[in-house]
Amino acid sequence: MNLLEMNHIEKKFDDLQVLKDISLAVEEGEIVSIIGPSGSGKSTLLRCATMLETIDRGEIVYLGEKAAWTENGQKKAVYAKKDRLRQIQKNYGLVFQNFNLFPHFSVIKNITDAPIHVQGKPKEQALQEGMELLRKMGLEDKADAYPCQLSGGQCQRVAIARALALNPRILFFDEPTSALDPELTGEVLKVIRSLAELDITMVIVTHEMAFARDISDRVIFMADGVIVEEGTPGEVFASSNERTQAFLGRYGKMLGK
């Protein structure tokens, strides 16, 4: 079953066409990595999928329910009503590049605030589940710490726990290691690998090529606002497409070539 479908997505910023007729689908349990040069539209595609940006044209569908679509004669896509959108948005979580933790909340409050105040979960249950997530992240001793007291890698692990606390059907990562020092990148990638073992559906925008190759069921290569090609990691990383080869050639050492 497709958890997400994005059909013929177009997005402009002023006169710059950032997404040009992009279509993709994500199946339940699938791990999809989106790779490509900076400015190719990867993060914009994720922001459109998670409603942080509005699309100009096309269709976004979660679990068979339309979140946005283009009606005949309409110049701009229309979105579902607010109450329906809120229900649709419960299907996904998003982990940002720069963590986006609340600096004045403790770690455990960052994780439990939305389950308690948005989902209406009992406080004791939310705290119990939050502590279990921190244990999985190796951060159970940091529950009462504040983000300013944590390393970047620890902040990103808290951000992942916060997204998981809402029990999303699909988890989006927007370059989750780009704000980290190289030595901290490994610890975050290790956590994401552990999520893969739990069959959590994930869409990951990343510049970590070896990671994308090793973890993904499918890899999408984007450039200049279009999907150049997609397929299994074996297909994409061994591609004969000139544009794909040129991009991956920059990562030769990382890929062991």
Give the helix/strand layout.
Blueprint: E1 2-13, E2 16-27, E3 31-35, H1 42-49, E4 57-62, E5 65-69, E6 78-79, H2 82-89, E7 92-95, H3 107-117, H4 123-136, H5 152-164, E8 170-174, H6 182-196, E9 201-205, H7 209-215, E10 218-223, E11 226-231, H8 233-237, H9 242-249
Helix pairs in contact: 3-4, 3-5, 5-6
Counting helices, strands and paired strands, the structural category is: alpha/beta
In N-to-C order, the SSE pattern is EEEHEEEHEHHHEHEHEEHH
**What is the tally of beta strands?**
11
Radius of gyration: 19 Å
Helix content: 25-40%
Q: What distance separates the N and C termini?
A: 36 Å
H/I helix tally: 9
Describe it for me?
- The relative contact order is 0.16.
- A 6-stranded mixed β-sheet has the order 7-8-9-3-10-11, sandwiched between helices. A 5-stranded antiparallel β-sheet has the order 2-1-4-5-6.
- The protein is built from 9 helices and 11 strands.
- The model has no long low-confidence stretch (mean pLDDT 93).
- Strand 4 (57-62) and strand 5 (65-69) form a beta hairpin.
- It has helices at 42-49, 82-89, 107-117, 123-136, 152-164, 182-196, 209-215, 233-237, 242-249; strands at 2-13, 16-27, 31-35, 57-62, 65-69, 78-79, 92-95, 170-174, 201-205, 218-223, 226-231.
- It is of the alpha/beta class and 257 residues long.
- The longest helix has 15 residues, at 182-196.
